[in-house]
Amino acid sequence: MKEIHIGLIGFGTIGTGVVKLLRQNEELITKKLGARLNLKKIADIDITTPRGVKVAKGLLTKDAQEIIHDDDISIVIELMGGYEPARTFVLEAIAEGKHVVTANKALLATHGNEIFPAAQKNKTHIGFEASVGGTIPIIKTLKESLVANRINSVMGIMNGTCNFILTKMTDEDKPFDVVLKEAQRLGFAEADPTFDIEGIDTAHKMAIILSLAYGKKVNWKDVYLEGITKISREDIAFARELGYRIKLLAIAMLRNGSVEARIHPTMIPSGHLLANVNQNYNAFHIVGDASGPVFLFGQGAGMMPTASAVFSDIIDCARDVINQTNSRGPLRSINEGTMTPIKLVPMDNIETKYFFRFAALDRPGVLSKIAGILGKHNISIAACIQKARGKKGAVPIVMTTYKAREKDVRKALQKIDKLDVVQDKTILIRVEDDLN
Prior knowledge:
By secondary structure, the chain is of the alpha/beta class. It has three domains: 3-133 and 303-340, Rossmann fold (3-Layer(aba) Sandwich), CATH 3.40.50.720; 138-299, 2-Layer Sandwich (Dihydrodipicolinate Reductase, domain 2); 347-431, Alpha-Beta Plaits. The protein has 14 helices and 19 strands. The protein has helices at 13-24, 26-33, 65-68, 86-95, 105-122, 138-145, 160-172, 176-186, 194-197, 200-214, 233-242, 303-323, 366-376, 406-416, and strands at residues 3-9, 36-43, 60-61, 73-78, 99-102, 126-127, 151-157, 216-217, 224-225, 244-255, 258-269, 281-288, 292-299, 340-341, 351-361, 381-386, 394-401, 404-405, 427-431. The longest helix has 21 residues, at 303-323.
């Protein structure tokens, strides 16, 4: 039976999962592939810490070059994360004519426009299913299943940490900082959770999704981004009263040849599938012009779910080796030479519905002042809630709007926040009702 040699760079959580899955299902994998996968070498800066999986000492090395320049190794699995030296290792492996499998969304979002053309030039394959959505096959869905579709929209819950925090805040009425500590204790959040809670991790994933959905080059820093750190129990309670749940939502919509792309906390109708994706799960809602709506749901992170996604790419690459083919086609659905920079709709021109929470003094005429300013900026009120009448000090006034332009909303809130009857900066959360 043919034997295909693979090398693993990065023996952390996901790398350990890959080794475990190979050991656990080796017979099944061999049967389905029609060849045996041989893990010939594992490289990591730490080769002494126990991982909970038995590995012969001869397989371990601190030098990734032993994998990159080993002529027997056909597939290099990069699971070390970060930008460097991951970028260098991946490009060196490509130059050696090796197929590469990676889960490194930050690397691909930042350096993909260098890495993918290099792979196409060298006729090697890059598998990156595990870079977005963990075990959810979102990459292959966009690259293969929906390849003939014009993608009208993609909406996704792409970060398990944020989703866990918002779920706990919603269902257990806990404050943000308490739930964040719980997420860290359970291993859902890093010691420094900035990339997750500020939305940067989601932006990396969104850039990859945009490149696949629209065949364009994307700079993730151009995507509008808000995290979840300003979401309070009060806003969650009002959302529930209005029939919504709050999620950190990544939104992409095709708009007359341009793409509307944004990431921010969003109120979603409580009956929608996305609103009911809870805990650390991820989900994607895609609408193609031919397919109609497609919904994908599953574990967005974790050792074994991500290892499962990594193996889907390993098997693809191994089949290329068996069939002596150099590439499965365009790596990002379209020839790299034809990809041009994506044209994004400016955030100022975005139109959506809004939730406002004002901290206003309970005095006659306050509502009319606020409503008057909103009206002058073409913002129509859909609903209004005012509670705790008669109390001294500021009380919450909540309003939802019909569709309005972001630029108009920003200008109106600047004026409202300067009113002497408004005691704090207005809280703004966008509302998405039109989820097909």
